[in-house]
């Protein structure tokens, strides 16, 4: 980031709505008021580090140029930049955002399209959504300066990360979702589901409120896109997008300090007098479908039914802030709520006392704090909520009274404040009723203990910390991403490989099997069977019979498959990622199966693999003692990916649900294997066996390692990186240079390897995103290279190498003479 000395770096915060209320007071004059809370609070700490500018819809429609110009000028003084959306606003915001995405994200399913309104279809709303995101991009482009960071907020801007990266791939882009993210079963009903996911994945960092939401997102990308879920996030087409959890908070000091103001204390006294002799249960919600206000009232009604002694001793005060009164579904909820209020007050109230005080309005901040402070119980019954900061606000205002929080387990806050709250299922009216009774009867000591837990969390995980943590993670993620780009490996220098090989005294060649040494298969192949490429038979024999060369085939395949293909060769075989090792005499040994390994999952998983193999033409699976691999490389691509997604759900819900296994989604495969076995973990043991069996005196001074390996197996490439020495270090300095703490690795380093950096070649086959030093286009190139290595020590090598280079140049259309 290029920032002049003394200047703060710039941050562009992009959200659907600016944090400003604008009211026109004249032809070219406006009255503006900054909205407190929300993102404004979340960026309190960030604003100290960055020159922050806001970009978003101003909240008002402005059609004349004079009004737009004057509003832009007024907003600029508050570091706000408007996006005028008049032409698309209704179909973008009321249509696609709130009418389609919002219900999906909140687990409500896809609303039915109104086929009588041809002007407002799924497609027209989707087009408006994309156009609106383009309009946001246009405003960003007008104001962007090199080095700016762009932080996009919420589902309204799901296309913006992709548009930003298309405009400038070097822009640092973060995206945070303030709502829940549903399970893949709900999300997959959404039209254009893949496009939205891939657009979001263009960002460098994706943030979610809870681990549940992040897990749902990663699994949805895995099942719908066929992407790979990693410990960092999601890998799709070689790009890694970081996915992390950042639970948002509030500014607790703002609430605590407000409760100390004289006018608020006066309001508190008035409320205490108003509800004298009664316990106060408080509810503060938007009046919409997900807040569970009807469920709250039903639970309260059940409580009054079962506890008649409380009927004139408790009151439920419900603040229901109106939202979208023009939408039929919202009007329906409002009518239902009003009906329940009338029924419950009619059943349990009297002229002088009503059990429910319901207000269809918002209240000012000071009065809200007073309500929070005098309440004995806060009742939150959300059916699905991103976080629900009302619960945080209640805790912040309860320093004196230490009331009880009854909290829905379906609110994001349930994962944050669950330790100090009473968690309930809002659909279970009996459970809600019991929780109300427990809260009202809770001893002071227990209330104080629970409040202490919650207030500590609210103060620690504030809105400021949320903003600081996100920006810190974004900067770190972007730096790591740039390092990955710089580390994109070069094409394997085959001439150097051959030259170094011929000059070395003890060579080690480590190869994968499937996709490396296997016979090429076509979609027309009748029998799907893993067979050694016949072109390699003579080459492998020559390499294996060379006393200066050791060849190891390290595969996830079982012993039977490797024996079938390599039985005639003096070759080292490592089956099931090194759990079983066969030396050149043909004897198999077990190298590492823990005594307590539980393989009860294998038979059940085999049934699932068989089921999908039978129903997916041209797919096949390999079974071994400790692993299963289903491969659909030669099946129809789209159908294979769909079947793989379904298979993962079957496996995770059934035979492997409680098993200690790793599940790996490859480009065209699904694999389940015993926990913790990777090729990198196995190679150290294999080298130890080599020392023992071959009685090595001359250390290995050349290594070539190549394969089509899954990401988690690519630790085999990095294993040898720590064993390489700079050219100037001699064999005598080997033991002094080793810094490994692992005893086996020390032994390997000192007794087996004398590996200089230029004598180690690792090459991934057809994988640009890899831990290997180099890439090689295909297994055909591996075959050609092995041919050359097999004859590298012969006098005919030079002629063969020249012929090989000529063939390669002719294949790419280069007819110039080869100068060797």
UniProtKB/TrEMBL annotation:
<dbReference type="Pfam" id="PF00982">
    <property type="entry name" value="Glyco_transf_20"/>
</dbReference>
<keyword id="KW-0808">Transferase</keyword>
<dbReference type="InterPro" id="IPR012766">
    <property type="entry name" value="Trehalose_OtsA"/>
</dbReference>
<dbReference type="Pfam" id="PF02358">
    <property type="entry name" value="Trehalose_PPase"/>
</dbReference>
<dbReference type="GO" id="GO:0004805">
    <property type="term" value="F:trehalose-phosphatase activity"/>
</dbReference>
<dbReference type="GO" id="GO:0005992">
    <property type="term" value="P:trehalose biosynthetic process"/>
</dbReference>
<protein>
    <recommendedName>
        <fullName>alpha,alpha-trehalose-phosphate synthase (UDP-forming)</fullName>
        <ecNumber>2.4.1.15</ecNumber>
    </recommendedName>
</protein>
<dbReference type="GO" id="GO:0005829">
    <property type="term" value="C:cytosol"/>
</dbReference>
<dbReference type="InterPro" id="IPR003337">
    <property type="entry name" value="Trehalose_PPase"/>
</dbReference>
<dbReference type="GO" id="GO:0003825">
    <property type="term" value="F:alpha,alpha-trehalose-phosphate synthase (UDP-forming) activity"/>
</dbReference>
<keyword id="KW-0328">Glycosyltransferase</keyword>
<dbReference type="InterPro" id="IPR036412">
    <property type="entry name" value="HAD-like_sf"/>
</dbReference>
<comment type="similarity">
    <text>In the C-terminal section; belongs to the trehalose phosphatase family.</text>
</comment>
<dbReference type="InterPro" id="IPR001830">
    <property type="entry name" value="Glyco_trans_20"/>
</dbReference>
<comment type="similarity">
    <text>In the N-terminal section; belongs to the glycosyltransferase 20 family.</text>
</comment>
């Amino acid at each position: 980031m290029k920032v002049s000395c003394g200047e703060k770096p710039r941050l562009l915060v992009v959200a659907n709505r600016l944090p400003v209320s604008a009211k026109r007071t004249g032809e070219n004059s406006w009255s503006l008021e900054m909205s407190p809370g929300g993102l404004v609070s979340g960026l309190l700490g960030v604003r100290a580090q960055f020159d922050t500018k806001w970009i978003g819809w101003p909240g008002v429609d402005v059609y004349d140029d004079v009004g737009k110009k004057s509003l832009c000028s007024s907003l600029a003084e508050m570091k706000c930049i408007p996006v005028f959306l008049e032409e698309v606003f209704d179909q973008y915001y009321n249509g696609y955002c709130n009418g389609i995405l919002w219900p999906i994200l909140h687990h409500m399913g896809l609303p039915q399209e109104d086929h009588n309104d041809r002007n407002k279809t799924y497609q027209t709303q989707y087009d408006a959504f994309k156009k609106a995101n383009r309009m946001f991009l246009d405003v960003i482009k007008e104001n962007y300066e090199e080095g700016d960071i762009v932080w996009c907020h919420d589902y309204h801007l799901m296309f913006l990360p992709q548009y930003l990266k298309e405009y400038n791939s070097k822009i640092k882009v973060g995206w945070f979702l303030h709502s829940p993210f549903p399970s893949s079963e709900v999300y997959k009903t959404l039209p254009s589901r893949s496009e939205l996911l891939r657009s979001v994945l263009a960002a460098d960092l994706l943030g979610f409120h809870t681990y549940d939401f992040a897990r749902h997102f990663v699994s949805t990308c895995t099942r719908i896109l066929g992407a790979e879920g990693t410990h960092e996030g999601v890998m799709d087409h070689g790009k890694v997008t970081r996915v992390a959890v950042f639970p948002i908070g509030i500014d607790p000091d703002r609430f605590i300090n407000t409760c100390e103001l004289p006018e608020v204390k006066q309001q508190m006294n008035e409320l205490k007098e108003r509800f004298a002799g009664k316990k106060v249960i408080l509810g503060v919600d938007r009046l919409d479908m997900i807040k569970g206000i009807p469920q709250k009232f039903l639970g309260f009604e059940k409580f009054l039914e079962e506890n008649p002694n409380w009927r004139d001793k408790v009151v439920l005060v419900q603040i229901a802030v109106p939202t979208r009164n023009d939408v039929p579904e919202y009007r329906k909820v409002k009518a239902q709520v009003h009906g329940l209020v009338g029924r419950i007050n009619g059943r349990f109230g009297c002229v002088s006392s009503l059990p429910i005080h319901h207000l269809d309005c918002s209240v000012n901040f000071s009065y809200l704090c007073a309500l929070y402070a005098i309440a004995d119980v806060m009742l939150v019954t959300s059916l699905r909520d991103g976080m629900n900061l009302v619960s945080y606000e209640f805790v912040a205002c309860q320093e004196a009274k230490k009331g009880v929080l009854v909290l829905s387990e379906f609110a994001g806050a349930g994962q944050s404040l669950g330790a100090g709250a009473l968690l309930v299922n809002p659909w279970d009216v009996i459970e809600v009723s019991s929780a109300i009774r427990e809260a009202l009867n809770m001893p002071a000591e227990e209330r104080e203990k629970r409040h202490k837990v919650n207030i500590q969390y609210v103060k620690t995980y504030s809105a400021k910390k949320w903003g600081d943590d996100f920006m810190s993670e974004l900067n770190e993620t972007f730096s790591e991403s740039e390092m990955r780009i710089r580390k994109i490996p070069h094409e394997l220098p085959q001439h150097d490989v051959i030259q170094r090989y011929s000059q070395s005294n003890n060579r080690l060649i480590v190869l994968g099997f499937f996709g490396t040494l296997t016979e090429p298969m076509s979609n027309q192949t009748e029998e799907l069977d893993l067979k050694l490429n016949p072109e390699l038979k003579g080459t492998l024999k020559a390499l294996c019979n060379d006393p200066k060369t050791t060849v190891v085939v390290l595969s996830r395949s079982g012993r039977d498959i490797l024996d079938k293909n390599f039985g005639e060769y003096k070759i080292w075989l490592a089956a099931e990622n090194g759990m079983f090792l066969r030396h050149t005499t043909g004897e198999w040994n077990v190298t590492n199966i823990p005594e307590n390994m539980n393989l009860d999952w294998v038979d059940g998983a085999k049934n699932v693999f068989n089921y999908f193999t039978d129903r997916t033409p041209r797919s096949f699976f390999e079974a071994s003692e400790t692993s299963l691999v289903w491969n659909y490389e030669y099946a129809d691509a789209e159908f294979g990916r769909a079947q793989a997604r379904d298979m993962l759900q079957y496996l995770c819900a059934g035979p492997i649900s409680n098993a200690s296994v790793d599940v790996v989604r490859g480009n065209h495969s699904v694999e389940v294997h015993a926990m913790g076995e990777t090729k990198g973990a196995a190679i150290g043991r294999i080298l130890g066996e080599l020392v023992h069996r071959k009685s090595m005196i001359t250390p290995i001074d050349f290594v070539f390692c190549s394969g089509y390996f899954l990401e988690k197996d690519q630790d085999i490439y990095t294993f040898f990186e720590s064993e390489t020495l700079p050219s100037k270090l001699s064999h005598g300095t080997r033991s002094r240079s080793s810094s490994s703490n692992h005893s086996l690795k020390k032994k390997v380093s000192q007794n087996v390897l004398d590996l200089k950096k230029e004598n180690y070649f690792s090459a991934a086959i057809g994988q640009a995103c890899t831990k290997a030093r180099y890439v090689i286009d295909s297994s055909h190139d591996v075959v050609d290279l092995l041919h050359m290595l097999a004859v590298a020590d012969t006098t005919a090598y030079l002629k063969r190498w020249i012929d090989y280079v000529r063939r390669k140049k002719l294949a790419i259309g280069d007819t110039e003479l080869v100068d060797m």
